Amino acid sequence: MAGLFGTDGVRGEANRLLTPELAVSLARAAAACLVPSGGRVIIGRDSRTSGPMLEAALAAGFASAGVEVGLAGIIPTPAISFLIKDERARLGAVISASHNPPEDNGIKFFDRSGCKLTAKREEEIEAVLRTSPAPSRRAAGIRRLKAAATRYAAFLTGAIESEDIDLSGLSIVMDCAYGATGPIAPTVLRHLGAQVVELNTTPDGDRINVGCGSTHLETVRAAVAEHRADLGLAFDGDGDRVLLVSAGGRTIDGDQVIGIVAEHWLERGLLSPRVVVTTVLSNYALERVLSERGVELVRTPVGDRNVAQAMIARGAKIGGEPSGHIIFADHAPTGDGILTAVKLLEIAHEAKTDLESLARRIPLYPQASRNLPCSHPEDLARPAVRDRIARAESALGGRGRVVVRPSGTQPLLRVLVEAEDRALCDRTCEELATGLQSEIGLARERR
Length: 447
Description:
The chain has 447 residues and is α/β, with parallel strands linked by helices.
């Protein structure tokens, strides 16, 4: 069971790695570790076909451990964070594999404050899991939550702070990836007056994330052009991230979203402290733009959980990842795609302009990336490898950066190069990847 938890909970192919038996055991271990004296847990899921099976197993595991279970059904991941506090529960669990294909699924836990568990907490659950915790003497009840989606939608519309916001006349294409946002996101935007063109909004476990959503922007981009819409929104399967497509077909990613929010709040004296939090993957251009405005950019390892923890430590109000996980700390402790869309539309309304114009103020550097097979992450510490990386950084002459890191989910070394100049970026990435591949091969031969 060692290393069962990854960067975002337990994830793998449903009914092979992630089985009902494992779900029952995980629930009992989480209960023993996090709520040993009992309490309530809120469980939500996305639309995957394996969801009801794992929901039943997870609920049975918690109930058999003496923990009362509230089932929220198909609902976005960040809704569980909200419902934990709304229901005064002790714990939350989400059954989802986020942007992964339909055959995968996952389980992630949230603490009583609505935050994802720390790595240390997950290690404690794994340790308890190895002991095969026994059922409680008294089983607890399982019930369906009333109006869970309605309450969450009300929270989202309540996050609007501009009294006069009216999105009438604004046409928005919305791609919900056949996932958990479909029953909620269109309703929220229509409540604010927008005209919504729906794409893939019916939950479908066999088609979730397939050729659509935030990992396939070509779908929403084509629809924006066809309908001459003002904006396109693309969510992933569980709704904790969103990417945008402008009327002109331009992608607005998480880095630009963070830049737009930070600049807007800065102009209005609302960015206090003057700190934003991103990961090692965030574009170097964002760091330079914010630095010129006196804003510190703090980088963390990949994962919105790491971003959230750093935000708490630094008191930051905004943070996130390029993939579209954005955290508005005044409203929620975790990434929320619908909330991000709502807050961005509010900012555009206040700025009296469109989001494409605001995104142009955050120009991003070209990026090049390569994935190299690597089963031994410790190879990164070898002097020859470090020397290759240092030479690549030197070649950029201060006009870019290099990030080389082991994957958190696969036996790969991920290479990322950014530079102001596209040709320099591509050339440096190719030369570095070739050199690292050679060094890794030599290390393999010596073993």
